[in-house]
Protein backbone atom coordinates (compact mmCIF):
# COMPACT_ATOMS: atom_id res chain seq x y z
CA UNK A 1 0.00 0.00 0.00
CA UNK A 2 2.86 2.44 0.72
CA UNK A 3 4.78 1.38 -2.33
CA UNK A 4 4.95 5.00 -3.49
CA UNK A 5 6.72 5.97 -0.31
CA UNK A 6 9.93 4.94 -1.98
CA UNK A 7 11.38 5.11 -5.44
CA UNK A 8 13.06 1.86 -6.44
CA UNK A 9 15.21 1.65 -9.56
CA UNK A 10 17.14 -1.47 -10.35
CA UNK A 11 20.49 -0.63 -11.93
CA UNK A 12 19.86 3.00 -12.87
CA UNK A 13 21.25 4.10 -16.21
CA UNK A 14 22.96 7.14 -14.72
CA UNK A 15 26.75 7.17 -14.98
CA UNK A 16 29.59 9.27 -13.55
CA UNK A 17 29.86 10.88 -16.97
CA UNK A 18 26.41 12.37 -16.37
CA UNK A 19 27.74 14.39 -13.45
CA UNK A 20 29.28 17.74 -14.39
CA UNK A 21 32.14 19.01 -12.21
CA UNK A 22 32.23 17.64 -8.65
CA UNK A 23 35.23 15.41 -9.34
CA UNK A 24 36.66 15.52 -5.81
CA UNK A 25 33.22 15.08 -4.29
CA UNK A 26 32.55 12.07 -6.45
CA UNK A 27 35.87 10.54 -5.45
CA UNK A 28 35.03 10.91 -1.77
CA UNK A 29 31.63 9.33 -2.19
CA UNK A 30 33.01 6.50 -4.29
CA UNK A 31 35.64 5.70 -1.67
CA UNK A 32 33.03 5.07 0.97
CA UNK A 33 30.31 3.49 -1.12
CA UNK A 34 31.96 1.53 -3.90
CA UNK A 35 34.69 -0.40 -2.13
CA UNK A 36 32.58 -2.16 0.50
CA UNK A 37 29.96 -2.99 -2.13
CA UNK A 38 32.41 -4.31 -4.68
CA UNK A 39 35.11 -5.81 -2.49
CA UNK A 40 33.74 -6.70 0.93
CA UNK A 41 36.38 -9.45 1.15
CA UNK A 42 39.13 -6.81 1.33
CA UNK A 43 37.66 -5.42 4.50
CA UNK A 44 37.05 -8.85 5.98
CA UNK A 45 40.57 -10.05 5.18
CA UNK A 46 42.25 -6.98 6.57
CA UNK A 47 39.89 -6.64 9.48
CA UNK A 48 39.09 -3.08 8.50
CA UNK A 49 35.79 -1.63 9.61
CA UNK A 50 34.16 0.07 6.62
CA UNK A 51 32.58 3.48 6.95
CA UNK A 52 28.82 3.31 7.02
CA UNK A 53 27.17 6.26 5.42
CA UNK A 54 27.82 9.41 3.45
CA UNK A 55 25.97 12.64 4.01
CA UNK A 56 25.83 15.06 1.09
CA UNK A 57 24.94 18.65 1.85
CA UNK A 58 24.63 21.83 -0.14
CA UNK A 59 22.12 24.04 -1.96
CA UNK A 60 19.28 22.41 -3.93
CA UNK A 61 19.71 21.40 -7.52
CA UNK A 62 23.47 20.92 -7.54
CA UNK A 63 23.67 17.17 -7.97
CA UNK A 64 23.23 15.35 -4.66
CA UNK A 65 20.56 12.99 -5.96
CA UNK A 66 22.41 12.73 -9.25
CA UNK A 67 25.59 11.53 -7.53
CA UNK A 68 23.73 8.90 -5.51
CA UNK A 69 21.99 7.65 -8.63
CA UNK A 70 25.25 7.59 -10.59
CA UNK A 71 27.02 5.50 -7.95
CA UNK A 72 24.14 3.01 -8.02
CA UNK A 73 24.27 2.96 -11.81
CA UNK A 74 28.01 2.40 -11.95
CA UNK A 75 28.11 -0.43 -9.45
CA UNK A 76 24.90 -1.98 -10.79
CA UNK A 77 23.08 -1.58 -7.52
CA UNK A 78 19.40 -1.13 -6.75
CA UNK A 79 18.68 2.52 -6.02
CA UNK A 80 16.11 3.06 -3.26
CA UNK A 81 15.14 6.66 -2.53
CA UNK A 82 12.97 8.02 0.25
CA UNK A 83 12.28 11.65 0.99
CA UNK A 84 12.40 12.69 4.64
CA UNK A 85 9.69 15.32 4.38
CA UNK A 86 7.33 12.84 2.70
CA UNK A 87 7.82 10.32 5.50
CA UNK A 88 6.54 12.96 7.88
CA UNK A 89 3.95 14.88 5.88
CA UNK A 90 2.63 12.46 3.30
CA UNK A 91 2.67 9.08 4.99
CA UNK A 92 1.57 10.24 8.39
CA UNK A 93 2.09 7.66 11.09
CA UNK A 94 4.00 5.36 8.77
CA UNK A 95 7.46 6.95 8.82
CA UNK A 96 9.11 4.39 11.07
CA UNK A 97 7.54 1.49 9.25
CA UNK A 98 8.64 2.81 5.86
CA UNK A 99 12.20 3.23 7.13
CA UNK A 100 12.18 -0.39 8.27
CA UNK A 101 10.74 -1.53 4.95
CA UNK A 102 13.35 0.44 3.02
CA UNK A 103 16.21 -1.33 4.77
CA UNK A 104 14.54 -4.73 4.46
CA UNK A 105 14.05 -4.18 0.76
CA UNK A 106 17.65 -2.95 0.42
CA UNK A 107 18.94 -6.18 1.96
CA UNK A 108 16.71 -8.24 -0.27
CA UNK A 109 17.76 -6.40 -3.42
CA UNK A 110 21.46 -6.10 -2.53
CA UNK A 111 23.70 -4.69 -3.75
CA UNK A 112 21.71 -1.57 -3.11
CA UNK A 113 22.03 2.05 -2.26
CA UNK A 114 19.57 3.63 0.13
CA UNK A 115 19.26 7.33 -0.60
CA UNK A 116 17.56 9.43 2.06
CA UNK A 117 16.74 12.85 0.62
CA UNK A 118 15.89 15.80 2.89
CA UNK A 119 17.11 13.88 5.90
CA UNK A 120 16.78 17.08 7.96
CA UNK A 121 12.99 16.56 8.00
CA UNK A 122 13.47 13.53 10.25
CA UNK A 123 16.83 14.31 11.82
CA UNK A 124 16.66 17.96 12.86
CA UNK A 125 17.70 19.05 16.32
CA UNK A 126 14.54 19.07 18.34
CA UNK A 127 13.59 21.97 20.53
CA UNK A 128 10.66 20.36 22.26
CA UNK A 129 8.72 17.17 21.88
CA UNK A 130 5.20 18.40 22.52
CA UNK A 131 2.96 17.66 19.57
CA UNK A 132 2.14 14.28 18.12
CA UNK A 133 3.77 15.38 14.88
CA UNK A 134 7.05 15.83 16.68
CA UNK A 135 6.72 12.44 18.32
CA UNK A 136 6.15 10.94 14.90
CA UNK A 137 9.36 12.57 13.64
CA UNK A 138 11.13 11.23 16.69
CA UNK A 139 9.88 7.69 16.09
CA UNK A 140 11.00 7.84 12.46
CA UNK A 141 14.44 9.07 13.48
CA UNK A 142 14.79 6.37 16.15
CA UNK A 143 14.00 3.74 13.56
CA UNK A 144 16.56 5.21 11.16
CA UNK A 145 19.24 5.26 13.86
CA UNK A 146 18.41 1.66 14.77
CA UNK A 147 18.72 0.62 11.13
CA UNK A 148 22.00 2.47 10.73
CA UNK A 149 23.42 0.93 13.89
CA UNK A 150 22.13 -2.50 13.04
CA UNK A 151 23.18 -2.96 9.49
CA UNK A 152 26.38 -4.56 8.31
CA UNK A 153 28.13 -2.35 5.74
CA UNK A 154 29.55 -5.51 4.18
CA UNK A 155 26.13 -6.91 3.44
CA UNK A 156 25.83 -5.09 0.15
CA UNK A 157 23.86 -2.10 1.38
CA UNK A 158 25.21 1.46 1.34
CA UNK A 159 23.49 4.54 2.70
CA UNK A 160 23.69 8.04 1.27
CA UNK A 161 21.72 10.93 2.73
CA UNK A 162 21.24 14.49 1.54
CA UNK A 163 20.30 17.80 3.11
CA UNK A 164 20.33 21.51 2.35
CA UNK A 165 20.65 22.25 6.04
CA UNK A 166 23.62 20.65 7.74
CA UNK A 167 23.39 23.20 10.55
CA UNK A 168 20.04 21.95 11.85
CA UNK A 169 20.90 18.26 11.99
CA UNK A 170 20.81 16.36 15.25
CA UNK A 171 24.44 15.48 16.08
CA UNK A 172 23.25 11.94 16.87
CA UNK A 173 23.01 11.27 13.16
CA UNK A 174 26.63 12.32 12.56
CA UNK A 175 28.20 10.11 15.17
CA UNK A 176 30.85 7.62 14.03
CA UNK A 177 29.22 4.46 12.73
CA UNK A 178 26.36 6.48 11.29
CA UNK A 179 27.08 9.15 8.69
CA UNK A 180 30.84 8.96 8.93
CA UNK A 181 31.62 11.11 5.96
CA UNK A 182 30.19 14.50 5.15
CA UNK A 183 30.67 15.86 1.65
CA UNK A 184 29.76 19.38 0.56
CA UNK A 185 28.20 19.57 -2.90
CA UNK A 186 28.75 23.17 -4.00
CA UNK A 187 27.08 25.15 -6.78
CA UNK A 188 29.08 24.75 -9.98
CA UNK A 189 31.93 27.11 -10.87
CA UNK A 190 32.44 28.16 -14.47
CA UNK A 191 34.20 24.94 -15.44
CA UNK A 192 31.48 22.91 -13.73
CA UNK A 193 28.79 24.87 -15.54
CA UNK A 194 30.50 24.22 -18.85
CA UNK A 195 30.61 20.49 -18.14
CA UNK A 196 26.96 20.47 -17.12
CA UNK A 197 26.09 22.35 -20.33
CA UNK A 198 28.03 19.81 -22.37
CA UNK A 199 26.22 16.94 -20.68
CA UNK A 200 22.75 18.35 -21.20
CA UNK A 201 23.35 19.43 -24.81
CA UNK A 202 24.89 16.09 -25.78
CA UNK A 203 21.95 15.11 -27.94
CA UNK A 204 21.02 18.59 -29.05
CA UNK A 205 21.55 19.98 -32.52
CA UNK A 206 23.43 23.21 -31.87
CA UNK A 207 23.91 26.00 -34.39
CA UNK A 208 27.55 26.90 -35.10
CA UNK A 209 27.20 30.18 -33.21
CA UNK A 210 26.46 28.47 -29.91
CA UNK A 211 29.33 29.11 -27.54
CA UNK A 212 29.01 26.96 -24.44
CA UNK A 213 32.02 28.64 -22.78
CA UNK A 214 30.28 31.97 -23.12
CA UNK A 215 27.05 30.50 -21.76
CA UNK A 216 28.97 29.11 -18.79
CA UNK A 217 30.28 32.62 -18.18
CA UNK A 218 26.83 34.15 -18.47
CA UNK A 219 25.27 31.78 -15.95
CA UNK A 220 27.23 32.69 -12.84
CA UNK A 221 25.20 31.64 -9.81
CA UNK A 222 23.15 29.07 -11.70
CA UNK A 223 22.75 25.57 -10.26
CA UNK A 224 22.95 22.36 -12.27
CA UNK A 225 19.17 22.21 -12.23
CA UNK A 226 19.02 25.79 -13.57
CA UNK A 227 21.37 24.87 -16.40
CA UNK A 228 19.28 21.88 -17.30
CA UNK A 229 16.21 24.14 -17.36
CA UNK A 230 18.06 26.66 -19.55
CA UNK A 231 18.98 23.98 -22.07
CA UNK A 232 15.39 22.72 -22.24
CA UNK A 233 14.04 26.26 -22.54
CA UNK A 234 16.52 27.03 -25.33
CA UNK A 235 15.31 23.93 -27.15
CA UNK A 236 11.71 25.10 -26.85
CA UNK A 237 12.68 28.51 -28.20
CA UNK A 238 14.10 26.83 -31.31
CA UNK A 239 11.03 24.66 -31.79
CA UNK A 240 8.74 27.65 -31.38
CA UNK A 241 10.71 29.53 -34.04
CA UNK A 242 10.44 26.56 -36.37
CA UNK A 243 14.22 26.18 -36.54
CA UNK A 244 16.09 22.91 -36.98
CA UNK A 245 18.93 23.96 -34.71
CA UNK A 246 19.25 25.65 -31.37
CA UNK A 247 20.97 29.02 -31.66
CA UNK A 248 22.91 31.24 -29.29
CA UNK A 249 19.96 33.60 -29.19
CA UNK A 250 17.73 30.76 -28.00
CA UNK A 251 20.15 30.25 -25.14
CA UNK A 252 20.35 33.95 -24.31
CA UNK A 253 16.58 34.19 -24.04
CA UNK A 254 16.47 31.00 -22.00
CA UNK A 255 19.08 32.27 -19.56
CA UNK A 256 17.17 35.45 -19.01
CA UNK A 257 13.90 33.60 -18.50
CA UNK A 258 15.22 30.90 -16.17
CA UNK A 259 17.57 32.99 -14.07
CA UNK A 260 15.29 36.01 -13.71
CA UNK A 261 12.84 33.73 -11.92
CA UNK A 262 15.36 33.07 -9.20
CA UNK A 263 14.53 35.00 -6.06
CA UNK A 264 16.79 37.96 -5.55
CA UNK A 265 18.58 37.31 -8.80
CA UNK A 266 19.63 40.22 -10.88
CA UNK A 267 20.57 38.43 -14.04
CA UNK A 268 20.38 40.30 -17.25
CA UNK A 269 21.71 39.25 -20.59
CA UNK A 270 23.48 42.21 -22.09
P1 LIG B 1 17.81 18.77 -4.14
O1 LIG B 1 18.40 19.30 -2.91
O2 LIG B 1 16.77 19.68 -4.77
O3 LIG B 1 17.40 17.33 -4.09
P2 LIG B 1 20.06 17.91 -5.64
O4 LIG B 1 21.36 18.51 -5.25
O5 LIG B 1 19.73 16.53 -5.25
O6 LIG B 1 18.97 18.91 -5.20
P3 LIG B 1 19.64 16.98 -8.25
O7 LIG B 1 18.27 16.47 -8.06
O8 LIG B 1 20.73 16.02 -8.31
O9 LIG B 1 19.94 18.07 -7.20
O10 LIG B 1 19.69 17.91 -9.54
C1 LIG B 1 18.54 18.18 -10.29
C2 LIG B 1 18.84 17.99 -11.77
O11 LIG B 1 19.74 19.01 -12.19
C3 LIG B 1 19.57 16.69 -12.06
O12 LIG B 1 18.69 15.64 -12.33
C4 LIG B 1 20.40 17.05 -13.27
O13 LIG B 1 19.65 16.95 -14.45
C5 LIG B 1 20.72 18.51 -13.05
N1 LIG B 1 22.03 18.66 -12.40
C6 LIG B 1 22.27 19.14 -11.17
N2 LIG B 1 23.58 19.13 -10.89
C7 LIG B 1 24.19 18.61 -11.96
C8 LIG B 1 25.55 18.30 -12.28
N3 LIG B 1 26.54 18.56 -11.42
N4 LIG B 1 25.80 17.74 -13.48
C9 LIG B 1 24.81 17.48 -14.35
N5 LIG B 1 23.52 17.74 -14.12
C10 LIG B 1 23.20 18.30 -12.94
From TrEMBL:
Function summary: ATPase which is responsible for recognizing, binding, unfolding and translocation of substrate proteins into the archaeal 20S proteasome core particle. Is essential for opening the gate of the 20S proteasome via an interaction with its C-terminus, thereby allowing substrate entry and access to the site of proteolysis. Thus, the C-termini of the proteasomal ATPase function like a 'key in a lock' to induce gate opening and therefore regulate proteolysis.
GO MF terms, alphabetically ordered: ATP binding; ATP hydrolysis activity
AAA+ ATPase domain ranges (all copies): 50-189
Family the UniProt entry places it in: Belongs to the AAA ATPase family.
Protein name per UniProt: Proteasome-activating nucleotidase
GO CC terms: cytoplasm; proteasome-activating nucleotidase complex
Annotated positions binding ATP: 61-66, 200
Domain of life of the native organism: Archaea
Localization in the cell: Cytoplasm
Domain observations: Consists of three main regions, an N-terminal coiled-coil domain that may assist in substrate recognition, an interdomain involved in PAN hexamerization, and a C-terminal ATPase domain of the AAA type.
Self-association state and partner proteins as the record states: Homohexamer. The hexameric complex has a two-ring architecture resembling a top hat that caps the 20S proteasome core at one or both ends. Upon ATP-binding, the C-terminus of PAN interacts with the alpha-rings of the proteasome core by binding to the intersubunit pockets.
GO BP term, pick one: protein unfolding
Gene responsible for this protein: pan
Transmembrane segment boundaries: none
Span of the entire protein shown here: 121 to 390 of 400
Keywords of this entry: ATP-binding, Chaperone, Coiled coil, Cytoplasm, Nucleotide-binding, Proteasome
Amino acid sequence: PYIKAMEVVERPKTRYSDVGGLKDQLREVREVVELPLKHPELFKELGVEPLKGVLLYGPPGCGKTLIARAVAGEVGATFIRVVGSELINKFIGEGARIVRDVFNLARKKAPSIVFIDEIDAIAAKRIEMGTSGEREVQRTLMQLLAELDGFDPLSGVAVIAATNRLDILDPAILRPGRFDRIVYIPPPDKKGRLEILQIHTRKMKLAPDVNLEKIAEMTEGATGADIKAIVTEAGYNAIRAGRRMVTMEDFEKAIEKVLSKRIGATYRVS
